[in-house]
Amino acid sequence: MTTLLAVDDAHITYRHGRETIQAVRGVTFNVPEGRACGIVGESGSGKSSLARAITGLVPLSKGRIAVRGMAPVTRSGPGGVRMIFQDPIGSLNPRRRLIDIVAEPLRIAGTSTSVARKIAARMLQEVGLDPATFGTRRPGDISGGQAQRIAIARALVAEPTVLVADEPVSGLDVSIQAGIINLLHALTTRQGTALVLISHDLSVVQTLCDHVVVLNNGLVQEQGNIREVFTNRNNAYTRQLISAAPDF
Fold first, then answer.
1. Do the Cβ atoms of 230 and 247 come closer than 8 Å?
2. H or E segment at 23?
3. What is the pLDDT of residues 16-67, one digit of tens each?
4. Alpha carbon distance 4, 160 (integer Å)
5. CA-closest candidate to residue 197, choices 223, 168, 226
6. CA atoms within a 13 Å half-sphere pointing along the CA-CB vector of 46
7. H or E element at residue 175
8. What contacts 129, CB < 8 A, 6 or more positions away?
9. Backbone dihedral region of 146: left (phi > 0), alpha (psi from -120 to 50 degrees) or beta?
10. Which of 17, 137, 146, 204 has the least CB density, counted as fewest CB within 10 Å?
């Protein structure tokens, strides 16, 4: 199976005045096509820093991140990386119609407006939103769950190689969470996308992911097949995370 995302000995360092903060220290993992990798850990463990490095928004101080063997670039299409942000409403332009928000990556890539809107309409249908009803609405006219579906549609419309989802169901009702999880799984599997899921919710990670990386203070505590890691619980920090998770 082809490896789409390769993270090799990734280090991320921030400087705050005279202080040096090592947010990520020596993280290594791969994600093949059509598979999902969960990144879990407490707040401050380095999850978000790693996500931003994968999308090319934060530079590495050491190591390498490659998408199809090349440096990650945040763009649509083959070789590109897209991100679904934690706050769906905040990530959408409040002045634009939903059809144009979804079509935006295609327009940036040079697709004509008419063709981009047709493709965006099909993607709206894919995420369970009727384009005739929702296409002309704006972000302020929809719910949080609907906004997350728009964010997913925008991210996947041009079939990126890697999709990074940062807490994609945080704050949503349980019934809506299930729909979003099923949608992410179906679309990324069908498109052969490599999915990286950043989440504190272990049940969501277990449902959606094949592989898991457990981070603590920027270091990998353990990683591997998600069933084996969560069932065996060989690492003390992993056991602590699981014991703190409600109903897991």
1. no
2. strand 19-32
3. 888 889 999 999 999 999 999 999 999 889 999 999 999 888 999 999 999 9
4. 11
5. 168
6. 25
7. helix 174-191
8. 98, 146, 149, 150, 153
9. alpha
10. 17
CA angle 44, 166, 147 (to 5 degrees): 140
pLDDT tens column, 131-162: 999 999 999 999 988 998 899 899 888 888 99
Q: Which of 183, 137, 139, 143 is nearest to 163 (CA)?
A: 183
Six-digit token pair at 164? 């990074």
The per-residue pLDDT for range 170-209, each reduced to its tens digit, is 777 777 788 888 888 888 888 899 999 999 889 899 999 9
Residue written as token pair 């490599």? 194
> How crowded is residue 246: how many other Cβ atoms within 10 Å of its Cβ?
7
* For residues 72-86, average pLDDT: 74
Do 199 and 167 contact (CB within 8 A), yes or no?
A: yes
Helix (H) or strand (E) holding 231: helix 226-232
Q: Which structure tokens are listed for 96? A: 């634009």
CB 154 within 8 Å of CB 104: yes
What is d(CA 198, CA 201) in angstroms, rounded to the nearest whole number? 9
> In this structure, what is the dihedral angle of CA atoms 102, 183, 30, 77, given to the nearest 10 degrees?
-30
Do 80 and 70 meet the contact criterion of CB atoms below 8 Å apart? Answer: no
Tokens of 243: 């014991």
